[in-house]
Structure formats: structure tokens, C-alpha cells
Amino acid sequence: MATYGTISSTVSEQQQTEILRGAIQDLPVGQQEGAFAAIAAFKNADDILALLDVGVQTGPLVGFARAGFAPFGFPLIPGTKIRGLTTEQENLFDAATVLFTANFIKAISGAQVSDKERQFLMGALPSEFNQEQVNRDNLKQLTDFLKNKYETQLGLDFSQLGSVIPQQQTVEETIEGLSPEQRQELIDLNLIRVN
Questions:
Q1: pLDDT of residue 188
Q2: pTM for the full predicted model
Q3: In CA terms, which of 28, 80, 81, 143 is 20 to 30 Å from 160?
Q4: Which whole-number Å values give the CA distances from 26 to 18, 30, 152, 153, in the listed order?
Q5: Which helix (H) or strand (E) segment is 149 a member of?
């Protein structure tokens, strides 16, 4: 395994992609598919977070409204929900969660994960039935799991590949990175509270 060390901050996105691709191709053939799937899962997680940021609603009530009575054996017409047609953003959210789930499962296949850990990880997958913050927190945990597994395996620091691998942050980390004026704006909009 090659160690790629520190990557200069002046490296272009294309060069970052080539470094990442090279590191994955240095893996044994059987591990390459999982590594490529992990990278895709990071991008899928970023897509899900972007959709949540623009207002896609999730939660138990929304999930049942979108799924109709399918959990009870009475599905609605595909593409509809109780209160009307699904929005394009809701459809994109559904597609992104399916892609994330598929890539995440591919990425952990063959990994040394106990049955109990695997059950926990699968229960943390994003869903229209989870509250928005639960989806955000779960995505952070799942991408951290992949990051821990694949950074070591690839010999790369993913934080140095920000153009290629989206970096997930907790709400607290995001708020800490804001200027005082930006924080005040969130307080004024009642989006955050000061303790």
C-alpha cells in the first residue's frame, strides 16, 4: 500500500481525483469496489444533506403521508401521497437515500463488522420516516464510519480531498464556524437558541 501523505492545498480537483483513484487502484482488486462505493456514499450523503437544507421534510408523519398506507398493505398510486403528488425534491431525496444505502452496503461488504454493529449501521440509514436531525446525525455517524475505515486503508487524509470527498459536519461544528454576525442572524430567525 502506498502512503500518499500530505496533499498540498493548491492541488486541483482533477489532481485530487487522480490521487484518490490511484490510491483505490493500489488496493487488492476485491477491495476496490468497496472503496469506490464508499466515495460514492460520501457524495450521496452530501446530496441528501443539500436536499434537507432546501426544505425536504422528513419524519414519521411525512413518511407515512408519502408512503400512503403501504406499511399496512394499502399502497397509494406510485408517485402520489395523501396530500397530493410528491415534489421533485422529495423524489430526489428518495433516490439519494436509495443510492446512499446501496453504496454504503457495498462499502461495508467484506468489512470486519459484527452482526450487532451491522444491525446498528443498517438502522442508521437515512429515511423519510426519520426526523430531519436524526437523518443528519445518522449520516454523520455513517460517513465517519466509512472515513475511519477507508482513510487507513487508502493512506489518505480525506479532509485534504474536500473537492472530491464532501466533508460532513455536525450542526455544532457548522455553527462554531460561523461569524458572530451569521450566528446572530440564525438567532434572529429562531433557527438556533442561545443557552
A1: 63
A2: 0.70
A3: 28
A4: 12, 11, 13, 10
A5: helix 132-154
